[in-house]
Structures are given as C-alpha cells and as structure tokens.
Amino acid sequence: QVQLVESGGGLVQTGGSLRLSCAFEIRTSGFYAMGWFRQAPGKEREFVASISDSGEYTNYADSVKGRFTISKDNARNTVYLQMNSLKSEDTANYYCNAGPWPLIASRGYWGQGTQVTVSS
C-alpha cells in the first residue's frame, strides 16, 4: 500500500552538503505525514525531520535545526532532505517514513535506508 525508496546518500566531508530523496507511492486512503529518521551503529533510530501531508507544517530534531531542510514535491511524489554543514555525528543510515502526524519511530511505513557518511 505504501512504498518508499530513498536515494542520495554517500560520503561527504565535514561541512559539506547532501540532498536525500524519498520517492513515495501511497495507494491507501488517508493523510500521511512524511519524514526522516536515522540510525547510527549501536544507537537507536532517532527522529530527524518531518513534514505534514499538506506541507504546511514541519518539525526538526534540535540537533539538525538550522542545518537541515525538509521539503515535499507532490507533483513528483518525492520528499527531500537538504543537509548542510554536515558533521561527523550526522553519519548514519537515513530512513524515510510515512505515517500519521506526528511521526514516531514505532509506527508507519519505512524505506530501505540510505547511508550517509561524514568524514573529517
């Protein structure tokens, strides 16, 4: 019913930028917020950013505020995460999520993830 495919991860130096994309296909009824979580080795999955179904509302983790921007293009069925001023602590596998607002890690649909590695 919901398919999410992430892309755009890779290796970048500290201070650099990356843009992640999540192509989505939703075949069920209802309203779905979209967002990103990340998981580093040995750590729990944590919330990064989310955007409401209408795109009117966004929410960010404190650790990424001012550096990351989430956006949504409904015409392309894609959600983006623009990541600037990357730090080594941003290194993680990033997962796209779709679900009820607000997004939480214990529910919703997930993509397969895309790896982001920030090197110093």
For the sheet with most strands, the description reads: 7 strands, mixed
Round the mean pLDDT to the nearest integer and report it.
95
Number of helices: 0
Secondary-structure-derived class = mainly beta
Rg from Cα: 13 Å
Helix content: under 10%
The low-confidence runs, each spanning 5 or more residues with pLDDT under 50, are: none
Strand residue content: over 45%
Distance between the amino and carboxyl termini: 41 Å
Overall 3D form: globular
Number of strands: 11
- Please write the string of helix (H) and strand (E) elements: EEEEEEEEEEE
Describe this protein's structure:
This protein is mainly beta. The protein contains no helices and eleven strands. The protein has strands spanning 2-7, 10-13, 18-26, 33-39, 46-51, 58-60, 68-73, 78-83, 92-99, 109-110, 114-119. The protein is globular, with a radius of gyration of 13 Å.
Could you give the topology of this structure?
Elements: E1 2-7, E2 10-13, E3 18-26, E4 33-39, E5 46-51, E6 58-60, E7 68-73, E8 78-83, E9 92-99, E10 109-110, E11 114-119
Parallel strand pairs: 2-11
Antiparallel strand pairs: 1-3, 3-8, 4-5, 4-9, 5-6, 7-8, 9-10, 9-11
Provide a brief overview of the structure:
The protein is an all-beta fold. The chain has strands spanning 2-7, 10-13, 18-26, 33-39, 46-51, 58-60, 68-73, 78-83, 92-99, 109-110, 114-119.
